[in-house]
Predict the structure.
Amino acid sequence: MLKKAFKWLLGLFILCTLVFAGLLFVPKSNEQIYRMRVEKGQGISAVSRKLADENIVYNRHVMLVAAYLTGVHNQLHSGTYRLPKQISAWQILQRLRDGHPDTITIRITEGMRFSQMRNIINNTADLKHDTQGWSDEKLLKEIDPSPLSNNPEGLFFPDSYEIDAESSDLQIYRLAYRTMQRHLQAAWDERQSGLPYKNPYDLLIMASLIEKETGHEADRRHVSAVFVNRLNIGMRLQTDPAVIYGMGSRYNGRIRKADLQRDTPYNTYTRAGLTPTPIALPGKAALEAAAHPSPEKYLYFVSRMDGTGLSQFSHNLDEHNAAVRKYILKK
């Protein structure tokens, strides 16, 4: 009798073990890829319940038991996890234990305008687009109640930003804003003496002009020197990227003589001094060039038009006219 009962219990145990193992280790087929969000501090009970409610795992109780037996319940890592169409409860537990949530990388390039940055973020999938309908002013005030300017142009650092999927897009803006504040303050603190900047915002404006004028490492400090030297003697900057920025939607790829003569706050041919705001998002190299112009007394530069991206720099108008004839007019 006891032997028979033992065999029955053993058989029942083996059957339960097989069922348990099947519910735990056999992948469940789902209709589509599933994104699982684990909030900071969220426990395995809530996670398993949601997965069961969404029909992603066979049985939440099996998942719970396995989590406690293996200690995974104390090792959950917050973030968003991309689960394939076929995955087992055991595989999910391993992902939660290993802590490799899915992330999104957003690339903001040096020289972009803030409007372009917003367009990239607004069109990035798997983000919560909390700010999509906000004005630039509201977005900026949400990040910093007392910004350097009410215009967000230039106040966000161009870089690659990685955040968890399904995070708020506001996190990216905050991170880019704080990163720019850090780099700008470092450039301001380490700047050369005698520069014609009243405050860090002036340096930021200058960096944006340099960023748009050249992407060549060898030219940045020389471009900076040209603009600084012109400011020091009251000469207009006469930089085309600023004119283009001031033209807005009227710019169609060409600048005409009439555009150079049409006055706007950003027309550095008709107005002296720096532009009222940055004209782009400058990178670290442009910030450093604005803070450390070369010692040369250059006042002019022109593209060499030879495919190198380099410019020819001149100390005076005669040198500049000769460079124009050589590189532009080809005479």
